[in-house]
Amino acid sequence: MKNRKLPETWKKINLEDYIITLESGKRPKGGAVSNGVPSLGGEHINNFGEFNIKSDKLKYVPRDFYEKMKSGIIKEGDILVVKDGATTGKVAFVDTDFILQEACINEHVFLLRTNKDICGKFLAYYLRSNLGQRKILNNFRGATVGGISKEFINFNMLLPPLEIQKKIVQMLEKAEDALKKKKEAVKLLDELVKSRFIEMFGNPVKNPMKLPKVKLENLGDWKTGGTPLRSESKYYNGNIPWLSSGELNSIYCFNSAEMITKLAIKESSAKIIEKGSLLLGMYDTAALKSTINMIECSCNQAIAYAKLDPRLVNTIYSYYCIQIGKDFYKSQQRGVRQKNLNLSMIKGLEIIMPNLQFQNQFADFVKHVDKLKFEMEKTLKKLEDNFNSLMQKAFNGELEFNSQLKMDK
């Protein structure tokens, strides 16, 4: 911005002067319980300002404990900010459509309430924006499990009149609504594939069609990856993609966060994985996360992989068979502190085995849907970029709202 003049009605403020409540919550000694009043933490807020409050994800505090809480009780209009851990800085706004009748926050979340000069949802959008996130995380301290303090609100920002704040909120709500509809459309395509699988083969765990079952060890040569010594710089920053289980997030994989060298393959337990192999996570929450590599790559020891025999099974079919039955297969995890699968357990997993012709028909259907999904995701990415750009311009005073006010009347 070159010598851009701000609207005369905007003013520069310190956010701290406009916050009337900033508090955190707590849980009783021993932590959350299985029933009572929902207690929300960092895991209940996602990157899009939404709440993850499905019944199986909720945690609770006893009602008598909740009724004695002096802070951290959630009310309509509150802004919640994650204060520590991997999701530090994530923001959500408690709108009229918040589905919980009663709820509180735990010790990992801050609750903010503003004075009458700031629209709560305007501030929530601001804090979610790239501009707001930078200012929040400027207060971040700590290495292993760092976080922010109550001082995070001590920063300067531009504040338009309340009427303009509300106009900005209306504009961003419309843009975000279009974004959400596109995301839902993409999700529906995933559901369509699952429905087609059930229609063709039935539930892969209950196996109502009495299809034969085959262990994974009979479909390919299963191996695990390895991690080259971190102390050896000669093993890293090469040109061979090297996957961790946290990257097994979709059916196809085209790249990786880290790269290793040919020397790492030669001198460590890391191995080259043939393109088109099935990769399965084995450890903890990543157990049975899966992908099919579309590039020659390598992986760490938390992943099992195999190039499946195309004369016996279709890899795309196998991927969905495992993903749809994942909850059942994961029940075979073991370990107290960390529930893991191992290579022997992966090899021993049984999947239903319909006629290969039908597997290939299903895979062709998946490929057709994937093409449509790819185009929709390109549109979604463009909408996300536009939304982020819109937020930045709105909070920098780069948009003209006077004309919009006239248009809306």
Automatic annotation (TrEMBL):
<keyword id="KW-0238">DNA-binding</keyword>
<keyword id="KW-0680">Restriction system</keyword>
<dbReference type="InterPro" id="IPR052021">
    <property type="entry name" value="Type-I_RS_S_subunit"/>
</dbReference>
<keyword id="KW-0540">Nuclease</keyword>
<dbReference type="InterPro" id="IPR000055">
    <property type="entry name" value="Restrct_endonuc_typeI_TRD"/>
</dbReference>
<keyword id="KW-0255">Endonuclease</keyword>
<dbReference type="InterPro" id="IPR044946">
    <property type="entry name" value="Restrct_endonuc_typeI_TRD_sf"/>
</dbReference>
<comment type="similarity">
    <text>Belongs to the type-I restriction system S methylase family.</text>
</comment>
<dbReference type="GO" id="GO:0004519">
    <property type="term" value="F:endonuclease activity"/>
</dbReference>
<feature type="domain" description="Type I restriction modification DNA specificity">
    <location>
        <begin position="7"/>
        <end position="185"/>
    </location>
</feature>
<keyword id="KW-0378">Hydrolase</keyword>
<feature type="domain" description="Type I restriction modification DNA specificity">
    <location>
        <begin position="213"/>
        <end position="382"/>
    </location>
</feature>
<protein>
    <submittedName>
        <fullName>Restriction endonuclease subunit S</fullName>
        <ecNumber>3.1.21.-</ecNumber>
    </submittedName>
</protein>
<feature type="coiled-coil region">
    <location>
        <begin position="165"/>
        <end position="192"/>
    </location>
</feature>
<dbReference type="Pfam" id="PF01420">
    <property type="entry name" value="Methylase_S"/>
</dbReference>
<keyword id="KW-0175">Coiled coil</keyword>
<dbReference type="GO" id="GO:0016787">
    <property type="term" value="F:hydrolase activity"/>
</dbReference>
